[in-house]
Amino acid sequence: MSFRWNYIQPERGEAVSKIQQELGIPESIARLLVIRGIETFDDAKNFFRPTIDQLYDPFLMKGMEAGADRLASAIRSNEKVVVYGDYDVDGTTATAIMHTFLKAFGVEVHYYIPHRFKEGYGIGRDGVDYAEKIGATLIVSVDCGITAVEETEYAKTRGIDLVICDHHNAGEVIPDAVAVLDPKQPGCPYPFKGLSGAGVGFKLVQATLIRLGLPPEVAHPYLDLVAVSIASDIVPIIDENRILMREGLELINRQPRPGLKALLEHIQLRDSQISTSHIVFSLGPRINAAGRMGDAAVAVALLISDNMNDARAYASRLEKINFERRDTDAKTMDQALKLMEQGVDCDKVSCVVLHDPDWHLGVIGIVASRLVDLYCRPAIMLSTVDGTIKGSARSINGFNIYEALKRCEDLLEQFGGHKYAAGLTIAENKLEEFVSRFQEITSEMLSEQDFKPELSIDSELPFAEITPRFWKVLKQFEPYGPNNLKPVFVTRNVLISGRPNIVGQGHLKMRISQNGTAPIEAIGFNMEHYSEPLRHAGNAPIDIAYALEENTWNNKTSLQIRLKDIHIGGKRIDEA
User: Computed from CA positions of residues 359, 360, 361, 362, in that sequence, does the dihedral angle turn out positive or negative?
Assistant: First the structure.
């Protein structure tokens, strides 16, 4: 797939030259900073040198006083506590943080993760009943609970207090719990709204430590799990999250806990080279696999393991579950593509809605994301569970799928999510009407231009500017993630040295130069289809879009170009 290139424009172009002069940096670096909202020397200092002491006071969060007091009281009184989490990576890491913290103080602590298919998302009566059965007097929810109004009242009737830690959008009514901690709830003055669920739990741990007369730094050993949650939950890696992410990555690379170390052994990565992308594409999916296939308890068991023997056993179980998940994922994708080929004309539809009653709920969200990438349209994948249709929705850039579903609210039994991802439940007799209305809504809100694949470009960059100093500064933009994506550059009039090669499973590899610079290694993963147009282009110069990265081979590290797209003669390959 070839892309049209969209150059990101700084909101205040004059700020580029100003910060370039103040910092003595190349214009391309200054442009990257201004695009990210960094326009002053102090902004740049905080961006390049974030420190752990810049974390916000946890007591700035609404409800934190009551939450920390209640948790500290439970610790002092040695009450039985249940940590109630979600089944995704954010929920399981948050559960592990809170469980490990309470256990360190000798609390009899248990955890409860609802079964994805039998119970669904959020606090449910089954979990409250479990807490009552074991004699718990306090439930601490993490990564869920902000809409659990009825469940909170039910817990009260069972003599159980509830402290809610969440980061999702609040409903019209806030649960009447002992404490509700959510920076997005109305009236919360907390300066940063982008914390993960584990991040909110981490702030409660810090505040509780202070209530116990201990320094909040005692919570720092949990930052590795916070980092895993931030990377996996696709929250913005800016502000406080940037600090938590950097510190957590450093801890993972320096001294990973047994559970993470056991997973790293399966991935065959050296501890000292773990990055955000390794979490997103390797660690996170393995932790998430258990919840996707039904029961996430094994993921929590891995993360709270305190010895390598147990950790390796749980990691092996997760690896097997992940293989099952990948197999189910691949089969579902094949079935979805066949449905597309048989009955969907993409020239006539503005969205993709597919239904198969036998699809596995744990993978349809992944497949929906792939359909978005493939067809450049919002996609909804639906399955049937006990006579009710449930599904996952994913969106394209610039289209708020949550708001689109809200316009179908009268046809839905339940829905929730955010701008780019959502879940929904529909009665079988409403499916046809829903598909028709959702198609009307997307047709109204989207244009032909929205369906063309687009690649966001940060800056043009001559090869002559790629110096060791340039790379040293660029590396300080890490860790990358939402709101601080890895920069994508364009270089024009590039020449290929020799012939491009196809390596591995369809990867394009070649050496390229510009205006007499030394050739640089370039690789384009899954870009085999570019080789034929390049062959026809002969020795003509090309334009490339790419990211810069380090490649280590045989203990030697060098700079490498990761190709994103190639234009020939100023045109996309599907136009050339």
Answer: negative
